[in-house]
Amino acid sequence: ACASEPWSGRGDRQATRTYQALALADIQRTAIVDPLRPADEVARDQFRHPDRMLAFAGVAPGWKIADIRPGAGYFTRLFARTVGDTGKVYAFVPNRTAERENGRADALVAAYPNVLRVNGDLNTLAFPEPLDAVFMSQEYHDFHIPAFNTDVALMNRAIFAALKPGGVFIVIDHAGRAGTGHSEVQTLHRIEGASLRAEVEAAGFVFDGESNAVANPADDRTVNVFDEAIRGRTDQFVYRFRKPG
């Protein structure tokens, strides 16, 4: 009779969800204290809040995730430890910047067995398997700069195609002022959040949330992000988009 009650088993399900959330948080914390992380990257944690970033993205063991233009690998290292032996991290280096960036990606491959470098055209980027997540940190605005020769609409559609149904596209970028769209991507290296959101949604994504982990209201968003007065402390938005399914 008890089993027929509408609330029967809800406590156990809630306990299971709580346990799973705590276990995932422990895995993510272990990634943050990974001894292979360089000291200069660890020093940036106070500004980049990796605990909140990993939790917001939902990165979990077994995930297949692409880090677009990973640079020195700040997030790639965190992802590699979190997804574990059953997961995979694809360090995607655009063809245009491969000559100077492949070496850093290869260093990540050498350090983490589950990291693989992938080169390609941003307009047609693709991966060996469907992905759980695509991650892009402080790079989206660059792809609007003419020198990158990128059709951002095509890039967004390629990312959409690369994801599994239900997969997520996480974008972090330097916030531009309302109404500026992508007019200051080259002069200030900033992009208006609303403009970016509209472009990504046009590719078929559903907006799935945002984080204020790296927001900075003290930044008036009028200064180039490389200016020492604000570098490393810019006002940034973090958006999560989901592929329906």
What does this entry look like structurally?
This protein is an alpha/beta fold and 245 residues long. 35% of the residues lie in helices and 20% in strands. It has eight helices and seven strands. Strands 3-2-1-4-5-7-6 form a seven-stranded mixed β-sheet. Helix 7 (152-162) links the parallel strand 4 and strand 5.
Note the gap between the termini.
36 Å
Structural class: alpha/beta
Overall 3D form: globular
Biggest sheet strand order reads 3-2-1-4-5-7-6
Instruction: Give me the strand/helix succession.
Output: HHHHEHEHEEHEHEE
Helix content: 25-40%
Largest sheet: 7 strands, mixed
Note the beta-strand portion: 15-25%
By DSSP, the count of extended strands is: 7
- The overall average pLDDT, rounded, is 93
Q: Count of helices? A: 8
Rounded to the nearest angstrom, the radius of gyration is 19 Å
Runs with pLDDT <50, length 5+? none
What topology does this entry show?
Blueprint: H1 10-32, H2 39-43, H3 45-48, H4 50-57, E1 64-68, H5 74-83, E2 88-94, H6 98-111, E3 115-120, E4 131-137, H7 152-162, E5 163-174, H8 193-202, E6 206-211, E7 236-242
Parallel strand pairs: 1-2, 1-4, 2-3, 4-5
Antiparallel strand pairs: 5-7, 6-7
Helix pairs in contact: 1-4, 1-5
